[in-house]
């Protein structure tokens, strides 16, 4: 017997006289010697406590009106009801093609040793607190439960830990809501919607023969489901509803849920610019990039008459990756970041609806990553509604090859998420399930999952023949009516519409689509195709912006950062470290973490909110940051950046789950929605970002050119070959440089805290502008506290971001310089440490490239031109030759060298990123430094 499903009533009401006395005796024995009690009774005692009768007493007097019942059979009846609630979904009529074997074995009356006559003798109160009006005895109660739990919807909620949630779900389900009838007007509206959904696919299929669209057919009621959720959100006065989904059914959702007009959609197929067909009321927003993307990757935002925005996110074919992006965007829409302190979070403002494919939901790990952070403070959105758009197949792969679980939805159960399976061929059940899901989310602020079970009418795409790989399934599909046709017949039988009205509606809507396409052809004949141009602001580098902070302001900020309350006592060692920041302002030893915090404070004073996440973002992986302090006596937290005088925006820093792909996607989505926020994701070590490569490849580097989406996301990737082994060395900067083109982002490798200070502030200054772009920073490890990387207050108050830094003390006698060493990042500080003040290195100059992309060719050329006798240009790096910036920079360096000898100094080509032990590292690193500084 499951202890997870709670009965609405108590089983003790079934006993009277000797039977009740026996149960009471067994309860006393259970308290003293539980090993001597029958396991079934133990389960009842554990769930319901002491035996009682109505009124709460254990006295047998007053129980005479309760019919006697055979103890064994009462237990069996209780177990049967338990089984129906827990396993009824296995026998539910949720498969439209009826091609799956249903399991009734766990809910068969006879298998529990019961007869209908036994059940008739039992009271309905054994099964319900609030007995349904149609139920008067145990037989009718079991029949009622079977009808509820094995109908067109199946329910899984016994795994939900919270008792109140389980009781609410049980009460809602057993109220009979799924089987309740809709109004006549609601039914007519569903028929009209289904007709539009079907005719849209049919029109494209006939008109644009051979073009891929990844149709919705077989899951037409997905639009009905989304309609109902949108309607409920609008009635609850939400501001935003954001949808993330892959390509199947996307065009239909764009058209009928996000209100992209028919002529706009058909123009995309006809290769006529859709700009000519925008709604004149300005209710539709789309963005475009200059390279573009296929139709079924595009998104849009529709503003309803109420003002609520319904958004479908842009998304490539990579399944499931949009889910964290949408939840991040939703979180941004729920937060007020305009005042100091923690952002004001209000989950009632926005809702995320995540539409998944069945094979991908079970197969893609990012689904679990998204569920894992759903209830954490830094990443919750107050519950997402998940929908599995379940066509029972993955490309050509059957379910038994696609997963090891019974349902594709089973992964959600591990996170305590209620699951509702519903037959996609029953539109009314779909509507009612949507209502339950939305209400659950609103009440409990948690995720819920709807498994919309249908089929796929055609192959993976419309040029694919599914009978090659799935012949038996498609024999059934070929004979199966569309949901529009079957629902039309249902309403005709009910007398709500006539067969003629059903046909006329079909003809009318199809004619409407034909008229829209005719209009597209007319416009196309009059207007030629035109290309989307890359914005002028992206064609050039970042403009010069003032990133300084006045010295007196920096001093005030520093005081604010160290003025924690008298009642707050930080850990002793940490307090000493932080208090040294007072002297650092005077001594010129402002280290990396200190400079970063000062930069953040200035950004908050400028009115830009800041959000930082990462696996150890609050403290910093290398204990360098300490943005959140903990009282050593009671563990209470204090965030100094919440208390900066003159601050005009919120600050949030969250330690994230041990996840990369989903969190990077989340922060990217957050920044898309709140374009004024400085959003930062920090990898624990730089190459941990490998796990999020899809986000860099398909979104952060390319979304502007594909979809016109602007992002100013900052990525901090700790980098440095320092003997910590291959996986704690390289941020794989070569991968970001390979993706660099069209000024799509900035890739920087700063060597000083001061330059990093100005780089971060420059990024914040560009937020919300047309010229904004993401920033990739290979941040340091050992340089975090290195004296040569420290900054002075003057560098912060008077300086700016330098794309190239010349080594102090070198190059003072230009005609003597014969070798110019160029490199980037930590290795340049190693060189600086060796050359000290430059004495003995008159023939050498060293140039640090702080911004790798866009590569500062002109600045390097201008500097090199000052040394007329230079014979050799050397690129130095600590990464292996086939990694790091060398191969990317080579083309630029050949131009900069202008005929001078060009050499490489660094590790040889390696399959690993570094040596695996400290001794080997020291030898290899010393060799790099020696060769870089050697002059023939």
UniProtKB/TrEMBL annotation:
<dbReference type="InterPro" id="IPR001017">
    <property type="entry name" value="DH_E1"/>
</dbReference>
<dbReference type="GO" id="GO:0004591">
    <property type="term" value="F:oxoglutarate dehydrogenase (succinyl-transferring) activity"/>
</dbReference>
<dbReference type="InterPro" id="IPR011603">
    <property type="entry name" value="2oxoglutarate_DH_E1"/>
</dbReference>
<dbReference type="Pfam" id="PF00676">
    <property type="entry name" value="E1_dh"/>
</dbReference>
<dbReference type="InterPro" id="IPR005475">
    <property type="entry name" value="Transketolase-like_Pyr-bd"/>
</dbReference>
<comment type="subunit">
    <text>Homodimer. Part of the 2-oxoglutarate dehydrogenase (OGDH) complex composed of E1 (2-oxoglutarate dehydrogenase), E2 (dihydrolipoamide succinyltransferase) and E3 (dihydrolipoamide dehydrogenase); the complex contains multiple copies of the three enzymatic components (E1, E2 and E3).</text>
</comment>
<dbReference type="Pfam" id="PF02779">
    <property type="entry name" value="Transket_pyr"/>
</dbReference>
<dbReference type="GO" id="GO:0030976">
    <property type="term" value="F:thiamine pyrophosphate binding"/>
</dbReference>
<dbReference type="Pfam" id="PF16870">
    <property type="entry name" value="OxoGdeHyase_C"/>
</dbReference>
<comment type="similarity">
    <text>Belongs to the alpha-ketoglutarate dehydrogenase family.</text>
</comment>
<dbReference type="GO" id="GO:0005829">
    <property type="term" value="C:cytosol"/>
</dbReference>
<feature type="domain" description="Transketolase-like pyrimidine-binding">
    <location>
        <begin position="590"/>
        <end position="786"/>
    </location>
</feature>
<dbReference type="InterPro" id="IPR031717">
    <property type="entry name" value="ODO-1/KGD_C"/>
</dbReference>
<dbReference type="GO" id="GO:0006099">
    <property type="term" value="P:tricarboxylic acid cycle"/>
</dbReference>
<protein>
    <recommendedName>
        <fullName>2-oxoglutarate dehydrogenase E1 component</fullName>
        <ecNumber>1.2.4.2</ecNumber>
    </recommendedName>
</protein>
<dbReference type="InterPro" id="IPR023784">
    <property type="entry name" value="2oxoglutarate_DH_E1_bac"/>
</dbReference>
<keyword id="KW-0324">Glycolysis</keyword>
<dbReference type="GO" id="GO:0045252">
    <property type="term" value="C:oxoglutarate dehydrogenase complex"/>
</dbReference>
<keyword id="KW-0560">Oxidoreductase</keyword>
<comment type="function">
    <text>E1 component of the 2-oxoglutarate dehydrogenase (OGDH) complex which catalyzes the decarboxylation of 2-oxoglutarate, the first step in the conversion of 2-oxoglutarate to succinyl-CoA and CO(2).</text>
</comment>
<dbReference type="InterPro" id="IPR042179">
    <property type="entry name" value="KGD_C_sf"/>
</dbReference>
<dbReference type="InterPro" id="IPR029061">
    <property type="entry name" value="THDP-binding"/>
</dbReference>
<keyword id="KW-0786">Thiamine pyrophosphate</keyword>
<dbReference type="GO" id="GO:0006096">
    <property type="term" value="P:glycolytic process"/>
</dbReference>
């Amino acid at each position: 017997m499951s202890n997870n499903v709670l009965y609405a009533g108590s089983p003790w009401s079934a006993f009277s006289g000797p039977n009740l006395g026996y149960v009471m005796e067994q309860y006393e024995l259970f308290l003293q010697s539980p090993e001597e009690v029958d396991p079934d009774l133990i389960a009842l005692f554990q769930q319901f406590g002491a035996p009682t009768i109505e009124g709460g007493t254990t006295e047998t007097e007053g129980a005479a009106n309760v019919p006697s019942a055979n103890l064994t059979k009462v237990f069996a009846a209780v177990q049967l009801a338990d089984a129906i609630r827990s396993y009824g979904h296995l026998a539910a009529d949720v498969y439209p093609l009826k091609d799956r074997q249903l399991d009734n074995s766990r809910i068969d009356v006879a298998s529990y040793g019961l007869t209908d006559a036994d059940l008739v003798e039992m009271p309905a109160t054994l099964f319900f607190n609030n007995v349904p009006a149609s139920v008067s005895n145990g037989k009718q109660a079991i029949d009622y439960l079977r009808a509820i739990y094995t109908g067109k919807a199946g329910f899984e909620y016994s795994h939900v830990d919270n008792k109140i949630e389980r009781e609410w779900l049980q009460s809602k389900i057993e109220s009979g809501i799924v089987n309740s009838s809709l109004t006549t007007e609601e039914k007519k509206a569903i028929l009209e919607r289904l007709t539009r959904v079907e005719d849209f696919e049919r029109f494209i299929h006939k008109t644009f023969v051979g073009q891929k669209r990844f149709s919705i057919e077989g899951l037409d009621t997905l639009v009905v489901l989304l309609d109902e959720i949108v309607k409920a959100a609008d009635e609850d006065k939400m501001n935003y509803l954001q949808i993330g989904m892959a390509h199947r059914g996307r065009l239909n959702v764009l058209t009928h849920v996000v209100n992209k007009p028919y002529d706009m959609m058909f123009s995309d197929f006809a290769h006529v610019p859709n700009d000519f067909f925008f709604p004149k009321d300005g209710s539709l927003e789309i963005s475009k990039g200059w390279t573009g993307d296929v139709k079924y990757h595009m998104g849009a935002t529709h503003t309803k008459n109420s003002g609520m925005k319904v958004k479908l996110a842009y998304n490539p074919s990579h399944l499931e990756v949009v889910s964290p992006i949408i939840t991040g965007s939703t979180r941004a829409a729920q937060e007020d970041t305009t005042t100091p302190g923690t952002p004001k979070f209000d989950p009632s403002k926005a809702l995320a609806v995540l539409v998944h494919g069945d094979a991908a939901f079970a197969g893609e790990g990012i689904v679990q990553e998204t569920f894992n952070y759903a209830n954490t403070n830094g990443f919750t959105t107050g519950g997402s509604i998940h929908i599995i758009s379940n066509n029972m197949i993955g490309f050509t792969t059957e379910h038994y090859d696609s997963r090891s679980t019974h349902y594709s939805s089973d992964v959600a159960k591990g996170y305590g998420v209620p699951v509702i399976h519903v037959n996609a061929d029953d539109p009314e059940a779909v509507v009612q399930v949507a209502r339950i899901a939305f209400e659950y989310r609103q009440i409990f602020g948690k995720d819920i999952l709807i498994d919309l079970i249908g089929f796929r009418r055609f192959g993976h795409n419309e040029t694919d023949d599914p009978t090659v790989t799935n012949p038996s399934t498609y024999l059934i599909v070929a004979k199966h009516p569309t949901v529009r046709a079957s629902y039309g017949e249902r309403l005709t039988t009910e007398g709500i519409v006539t067969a003629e009205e059903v046909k006329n509606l079909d003809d009318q809507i199809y004619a409407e689509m034909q008229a829209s396409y005719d209009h597209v052809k007319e416009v196309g004949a009059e207007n030629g195709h035109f290309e989307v141009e890359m914005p002028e602001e992206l064609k050039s580098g970042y403009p010069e912006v003032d990133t300084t902070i006045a010295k007196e302001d920096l001093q005030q900020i520093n005081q604010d950062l160290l003025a924690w309350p008298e009642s707050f006592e930080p850990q002793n060692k940490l307090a000493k470290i932080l208090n040294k920041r007072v002297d650092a302002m005077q001594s010129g030893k402002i280290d990396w973490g200190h400079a970063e915090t000062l930069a953040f404070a200035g950004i908050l004073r400028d009115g830009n909110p800041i959000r930082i996440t990462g696996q150890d973002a609050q403290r910093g992986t290398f204990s360098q940051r300490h943005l959140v302090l903990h009282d050593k006596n009671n563990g209470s937290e204090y965030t100094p950046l919440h208390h900066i005088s003159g601050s005009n925006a919120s600050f949030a820093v969250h330690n994230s789950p041990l996840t990369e792909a989903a969190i990077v996607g989340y922060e990217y989505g957050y920044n898309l929605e709140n374009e004024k926020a400085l959003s930062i994701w920090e990898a624990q070590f730089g190459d941990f970002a490998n796990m999020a490569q899809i986000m860099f490849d398909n979104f952060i580097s390319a979304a502007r050119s594909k979809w016109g989406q602007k992002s100013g996301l900052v990525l901090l990737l700790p980098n440095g070959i320092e003997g910590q082994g291959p996986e704690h060395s390289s941020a794989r900067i070569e991968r970001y440089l390979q993706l660099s083109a069209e000024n799509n982002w900035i890739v920087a490798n700063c060597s000083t805290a001061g330059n990093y200070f100005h780089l971060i502030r420059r990024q914040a200054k560009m937020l919300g502008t047309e010229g904004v772009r993401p920033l990739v920073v290979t941040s340091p490890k050992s340089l975090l506290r290195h004296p040569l990387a420290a900054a002075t207050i003057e560098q912060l108050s008077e300086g700016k971001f330098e794309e190239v830094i010349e080594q102090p003390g070198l190059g003072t006698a230009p005609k003597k310089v014969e070798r110019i060493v160029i490199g980037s990042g930590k290795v340049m500080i190693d060189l600086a440490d060796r050359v000290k003040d430059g004495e003995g290195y008159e023939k050498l100059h060293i140039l640090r490239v702080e911004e790798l992309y866009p590569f500062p060719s002109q600045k390097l050329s201008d500097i090199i031109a000052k040394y007329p006798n230079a014979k050799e240009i050397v690129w130095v790096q600590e990464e292996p030759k086939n990694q790091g910036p060398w191969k990317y920079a080579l083309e630029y360096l050949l131009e900069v060298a202008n005929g001078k000898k060009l050499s490489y100094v660094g590790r040889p080509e390696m399959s690993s990123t570094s040596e695996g032990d400290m001794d080997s590292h020291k030898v290899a690193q010393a060799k790099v430094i020696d060769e870089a500084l050697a002059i023939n």
